[in-house]
Structures are given as structure tokens and as C-alpha cells.
Amino acid sequence: MVGTHARTVEALPKVQSFDYKDVAAAPEQVVEAIRLAGGVIIRNFVDFETLDIIEAEVRPHLVDIPDDLVDVPAAEKEQHELSRDGVFNTTFFPNRSRRLFGMISKSTTSTKLLLDPLYQEVCRRFLRSYHTSYIGEGAEPEYHVSEPKVNNSIAFSIMPGASAQPLHRDDSPHHIHNEAVDVYPELEKTHRDSCLGLFVAGMKTTKENGATRFIPGSHLWDHHEPPKEALAVYAELERGDAFMMLGNCYHAGSANTSKSTERLIFSAFYVRGFLMPEENQSLAIPIEVAATWPLEMQKHVGFGLSQPVSGMVDGRDPIWVMEEYLASKKAKEDAEVKA
User: Fold this and answer.
1) Distance between CA atoms of 292 and 290, rounded to whole angstroms?
2) pLDDT tens-digit readout, 33-42
């Protein structure tokens, strides 16, 4: 095993890049690339027309947040502070940045990114969990599967002059403590990762305008090994490209040193189905919004069980809540037509 003192950029695993059309039917290449480096770039992940619609839906919610609150009226200061920092400390997100949490609740079109078949299959490979249980002496084993669920969805707008975000891991909310390994374990035999992310470029992202930097191979490190900036590389993307990354890789948004170029990113993470999502999907997404989505997406945000019984409502699969809402809505609409 490589000693932490001996780590060099040259010795880090190479971050691979694939065109979407070449791997859409062969996710094994993407999975193996992530096992090796912790992240992978997918070129031409989404078409420009879809990106245009997502951006149009997101833009009204990307509220400007003042960097200096000195001249902000007292009545508005608290709200600005909450918008700027929230549950995060004041240095986690850079100045000159705007964020939209709960992106899918504001942009229905952005759910297409989360439901992308390639991303879904990669998430299943890394985050699907299997469990066997016995109930009673002499009983036959019962087999359960916990499917990944949405962890968060966030739109980021990083403006010129924004400072760099500190390197961090996104599995911290799930209290993951991994030991160092040389090779990523077999997927069916490990819970090493709690989440897997997707960063889609709403516009070209470069080192200059703040592209995500990350440390390839850091998903294999011990939990207690801190990050080193000298080991970070940049995931530069053309518009429509995507970067997939395991949650236990050190990464961060970078400084936007450009004079006039915004960095716009649409991001999402999935999490193991039996863990609490970083973003409370049940409260972040109004049921009337979720009701317009495909059943698969509804299950991904809480209207589905993590087998055997996690997430139940009144002892039942939570999808019944959605079914009753839709039935009530239809009955009301039918009554209005007859009136």
C-alpha cells in the first residue's frame, strides 16, 4: 500500500473519459473506471435543448446573495445569512456563488438527469444493498433489496471572483469510516460508499472559471487521511458533459478567476436506500410536484420502501399516499367538470 507521504500526482489513477453513446449500453466500462479513480467524465451526457429548459426553470430561483451584509437592511439580513450559509459553516461555500437546493422541486425537467439510464445503472451497481434475514427458528431465509434514493439535487452558479471551496468528502453526513485499500472491493460485498454524484455542465467549465477539482484515487484512502491540494486535478467539461463521482472522493468547487464567465452546474447525488438523505426529500418536494413525475422518480424521493419495511407509512408501502392524493385530485377535477 502506498504510504501517504509518497503520494504524487503522477502516481494517481487516470480519470477516464467516455462519450455517452459509446457506454450507454455498456455501463461496465464506466463502473470499472469509477472503481479505479473514483470518478469518470461522460461526454455529451445531455442535449442542449434539455439544458436550455432546465436553465430556464432554475434561473428564477438563483437569488443573488450579497457577499457583504454591512449595507443590507436589518430586516433582510437574517434571511440573507440563512440563504448564504444555512446549515453549512460560512467558509464552506465561496463568496460570489448562488445555489438552488431542492433543484428537482423547482425544475421538473432536471429529473431527466437523475433518471438517465446510464447514471441509474451506475448508481445501482455501487449503491444497491442486499440483505438476508431469518424470522423464527427453522425459517427459510428472506432476501431484501434496498434501492438507491435521491440524496440531494442542487444547482450551482459560480460567478467571476468566487473563491475556491475547501476539499471535502460528501459522505460525511452518513458517518462513513473506511480503512485504506489498494483495490476497490467487489461491489456486491461492500458498503464502502454511501453516495454517488452527478455534475452536469450547464455551460463550459474550465480550471479558470472554477471547474470541480478532485483527487483521483482518494476513494481508496483511509477515512482519517486529510486531502492535499497538490494532488487535485480538474474535471473540465464542455456544455452537456457530466462528471460522475463517488461520495468519498475528496473534491471541491474551484475559484472562478475568469473576468466574465459564470460556471453553471446541475448536480445530484443518490444515496443507499436505508440511509437518511442529506436533503429531506419528503419536505423539500411538494406532493403536487412529485405527482407529475414518473412512478420511478416518485419512489426515488420517498414514495417507495427500502426493503423490507423502511419508509413505511401506517404500516404500508408509502406509494399509497401518492395513490390517494391522485385519486382525490381526480375526484375533485371530475366534480368540477360536472358542476
Assistant:
1) 5
2) 999 999 999 9
